Amino acid sequence: MPVIRVRHVTMYRYKQPVALGEHRMMLRPHDSYDQKLIESSLNITPQPVGLRWVHDVFGNCVAIARFAGRAAELRFESVIRLEHSATDVLDFQIEEYATRYPFSYGAEDMPDLLRLIERQYLDPEHEVDRWARQFLRHDGRGDTTELLAAMTHAIRRDLSYVAREESGIQDPLQTLRLGSGSCRDFAVLMIEAIRSLGLAARFVSGYLYVPESRRGSRVGGGATHAWLEVYLPGAGWIEFDPTNGIVGNHDLIRVAVVRDPRQAIPISGTWTGFPSDHLGMTVEVEVTTEPETAGSPDHPAPEPLSRASA
Q1: Each residue of 190-222: pLDDT tens digit?
Q2: Which end of the chain is more exposed for a tag (fewer CB within 10 A), N or C?
Q3: How far apart, in whole angstroms, are the C-alpha atoms of residue 210 and residue 303?
Q4: From residue 47, how far is each of 12, 68, 70, 73, 150 by CA, in Å?
């Protein structure tokens, strides 16, 4: 099982020292059967007067920092190491009744899935609905796995990826009309399309590991990345990355899983000063892979696989 190291640095700069308020960080990944957290460190400058960890309503790990005094720079550095094992789409063991769409979730699951089936964006002309139904047969039926895979690959094929620096999510209707968007925009578009078909979907924030062999075909590897999960009876939550056409968890490192993308902001907080004091923010994410046998001459030193500054 490969070991992946992620270094994530966020720096805020101000024209003069400002008073720092409480900051919330979602940087520690989920520990699960397919990704085992080995080590995690979080360094903050200036040092906070208080740092506590909590689990949010979805079970995500959240760090909350409190500060005293003023500072002209605020820096967060998160370093994690984890083992990651890929799950192939052919390994999905879906319940027989759910292998063909449409199907209904069981009575025991439906109460917990309802909010993840609800639409979050207006679609008065049913444009997202029509876009989603193009992946079904004329009678409205289809193979469940093929339907989801086709939708994932269509976004990758037909829409243009744009790394947007501004915060927030693009409305799914705007993404369709523009034919472009960021990874988070593509994830929200597919979530809304999946929900329009009556299936449960949720937003995932994390990192993308880009192997040397895929540097020319993968995008979104030099920053935080976004994709989605769909709940399939028997298989559970299955990951889909429409930005790169990935079905399954290949090279996807989960950090936060939420109902709405606004609930998965990596770092958020407040400061007090003049509006003109804010000079900007830089983000650097570096993902590396470690050799299987440390120190062996047959395994070279870890090589940076994706790095970028925003």
Answers
A1: 999 999 999 999 999 999 998 876 776 788 877
A2: N
A3: 11
A4: 14, 9, 11, 11, 48
